[in-house]
Structures are given as structure tokens and as C-alpha cells.
Hints:
Layout lengths: L3 E3 L7 E2 L5 E2 L8 E7 L8 H12 L4 E7 L11 H12 L18 H6 L18 E4 L4 E5 L8 H10 L3
Parallel strand pairs: 4-5
Antiparallel strand pairs: 1-7, 2-3, 4-6, 6-7
Amino acid sequence: MTSETVVDIRDIPFHTADGGTASLSDYGDKVILIVNVASKCGLAPQYEQLEELQRTYGDRGFTVLGFPCNQFMGQEPGSMDEILDYCAVNWGITFPIFDKVKVNGGGAAPIYKALKKAKDSEGAHGPIIWNFEKFVLTPGGTVHRFRPTVKPDDPAIVSVIESNLPS
């Protein structure tokens, strides 16, 4: 289960892997799954399910956005080139991977400061607890939060995606 929270975050800027600037508004009315990723995490096999979602729904108004993060036991220590190579070689990732971010603390990326206001299925909000915490943003601005152990292909996530895709 998930809880819904409306958070206006589409215009918050963040950095692309090549040093440019982007925002969620660049993705129009797509359903967006935002996830903090780490290549050396035990949850890294979730990349496969994230990519499967991208391939299944990408041409229907959906995208995954990956944000590498090294805050949890140093599990994303590589350079951006190393991270992008890892994603391509090991998982065949086609969805965008952005610049490495901090998700917690004073130096947290603004996008994550906003996302942390969203509540999960238990009504809890606040700090990101680990790698692969997922947020699904609907075109109407509702944010659905899923904790790291909820797999990307979990029926609760798939239901939110499918119910918000254009007809």
C-alpha cells in the first residue's frame, strides 16, 4: 500500500550526469519513478526491474529517473563515468541516470528535500532510509512513496503507474 502526498516539485532543478541542469517539468505529464541508486548495494538487482518498467511503459508516458547516492555505507563510490558504464554493461539501463546526489542531511539535493515530505504506506515521511527508495510522481503532482525493500515490479507500484498513464 502507499499513501498519497501532493508536493509541487516539477520545477526544482537538478544536475544531469554530464553537468547540465534538468527538472521534472522537462518530462511533461509523464508518470515518473524517482529512485536513489547504488551499484554496490545488495538491492542493485532492482535495476533489472526498473529497466523492465522502463521498457514496458516508457513509450506510454512513463520514465524512471535514477539518482546515484553514496550516503549509505559508501555503496556508490565511483565516478559518473563508472556509474554510467556499470548501468549500461550490467543492466542495459536505458532510463536517465543523473548526477550523484545526497538524499539526507543539510547537503541533500533540493529534489530529495521535497520528496522526503511524501508519506509511505504506513504514514511515515522524513529521511531516506536506504538505497533504492522509490517515489512515483503522477501527472497531477501526487507523490507515492515506496521503501527500498518494495521491489519496482510490486503490484502496488505497477498499479500507480498503470492507473496514471494516458488512455
